[in-house]
Each structure stands twice: as structure tokens, then as C-alpha cells.
Design a protein that fits this description.
Distance between the termini: 38 Å
Radius of gyration: 23 Å
Oligomer: single chain
Number of strands: 4
Strand order of the largest sheet: 1-2-3-4
Number of helices: 8
Strand content: 5-15%
Structural class: alpha+beta
Length: about 240
């Protein structure tokens, strides 16, 4: 019987991640090379321009500021690449089952307690309900057709109200219908909720809600979205 390797999985290197990020973004924006080149040229122009403006005017000063401009241009290009890749990511996630869970688990940070698994789901239609708990209260997020989500949202709201009486409960529907929130704005919308729960109360609420939550690991909803297909890797 062959022994199982205990060596840690080798993570992709920095340049490998950059290449993956570029390929991912270029698939949607064919003009990406020109945009990145423009960002680099802009940085170099700023650096050289500063070299000419700062007295005394000397060649070595222009060269040094030109090198700084190259670094600035690379920074501009990386910022541009990251923002464009984020737009592509949300475009690919839009309408995909499980996309809400993916955004909740990766986009809210440590101040919110959530999961990429739904807390309620309709196995036939794959309409799902997710939950996030934070200083803004309890947020119930519906993914799917709003009309079919009524019962799932109502059941989750009643369950939360029983164990977290007095805590603000918000309901958000993900989609493009009137009153719904696009997937690209979901994390931002949740983070913008006013803080109505103090830290001590939040810890107690999370504990009580977890105690009544039921496992949904057998539900036919993907646990997450393949990051190589829907989410661009961010350089480390």
C-alpha cells in the first residue's frame, strides 16, 4: 500500500498568479494589454515629469525619478488589473447557484459571521437562503426567484426572531428585480448597514443562532464556486 504524501500542497507563485489573473481578465476585456501599457506609460511619464520639475535639473535625477515612475506604473497596472478582474468575477457569478454564498464567505471579512452554505434551500428549484450575522444585525439573503423565496425567508426569519429577540433583522434579495441587490453590490450593501449590535450581544446572538441551525451539507447546492472559473486570484 503506497504511503500518502504529507508534504504541503505547493501554492502557485507570484508570477503564476499574475498570469492567471491576466488570462482570466483578458478573456472578457480584449483591450486589456493596451490599458495596462497605458497605465505603465502614465506612471513613467509622472516620474520623468517630476525629475524635470525638481531642481537642480540633472540627468541622474531624471533617471532615478524615471525608475520610480516605472514602479508607479506597475502599481497603476496592478490596481487596474485587480479592479477589472473583480468586474469579470461578478459578471461570471451573476445568476450562478451558490454565488451568494461565495460572496458572503469571501467579501464580508471577519466582522461578519457567515458561510458559503445556505441555511435553507428548495432542492427542486435551487432557490436558497443565506444568513450573515454582524454588528449590523442579522441579514437574511435570498438567492433565486423572489416569489418562490417567500416561505424560505419567512421560516428563517421566524427562527432567528425566536433566538435573537430585539436584534435587527434585514432581508435582502439578490438579483436584478425591482428592490433587489445585484450580486456585485451585495457585500457593500451589507457592510453599509448601521451598527445596532454591540460586541458582547453579537457573540451571544451568534452562539444562539448556531445552536438552532441545522446541517444542510446534503443539499444539492454547490458549496462554493470554483475560484479558477469564477473568481480571479489576487496577487500575494
Amino acid at each position: 500500500m503506497a504511503s500518502r504524501s504529507t508534504a504541503p500542497e505547493k501554492r502557485p507563485g507570484f508570477f503564476s498568479q499574475i498570469r492567471s489573473l491576466y488570462t482570466f481578465t483578458h478573456s472578457e476585456f480584449r483591450w486589456l494589454p493596451w490599458a495596462l501599457a497605458g497605465a505603465l506609460v502614465l506612471g513613467i511619464a509622472i516620474g520623468v515629469g517630476i525629475g524635470f520639475l525638481i531642481p537642480p535639473l540633472q540627468l541622474w535625477s531624471i533617471i532615478l525619478w524615471g525608475v520610480s515612475g516605472i514602479l508607479l506604473g506597475i502599481l497603476f497596472a496592478m490596481i487596474l488589473l485587480t479592479r477589472l478582474s473583480t468586474r469579470v468575477m461578478y459578471k461570471k457569478l451573476d445568476g450562478m447557484p451558490g454565488a451568494t454564498g461565495h460572496v458572503l464567505s469571501t467579501g464580508l471579512g471577519r466582522r461578519w459571521v457567515t458561510s458559503d452554505m445556505p441555511v435553507g434551500v428548495n432542492p427542486r428549484t435551487q432557490d436558497a437562503v443565506y444568513r450573515a450575522v454582524g454588528r449590523g444585525g442579522v441579514v437574511i439573503i435570498g438567492e433565486g426567484a423572489r416569489g418562490r423565496l417567500t416561505r424560505l425567508v419567512s421560516d428563517e426569519r421566524k427562527k432567528v426572531s425566536r433566538v435573537a429577540s430585539g436584534v435587527n433583522v434585514e432581508v435582502i434579495y439578490v438579483g436584478h428585480e425591482e428592490g433587489a441587490v445585484p450580486i456585485s453590490q451585495l457585500a457593500k450593501t451589507i457592510k453599509a448597514l448601521p451598527k445596532t449590535v454591540d460586541r458582547a450581544t453579537l457573540a451571544a446572538v451568534v452562539k444562539r443562532i448556531d445552536s438552532v441551525s441545522q446541517s444542510v451539507t446534503s443539499l444539492p447546492i454547490p458549496k462554493g464556486v470554483d475560484p479558477m472559473r469564477a473568481r480571479a486570484q489576487r496577487p500575494r
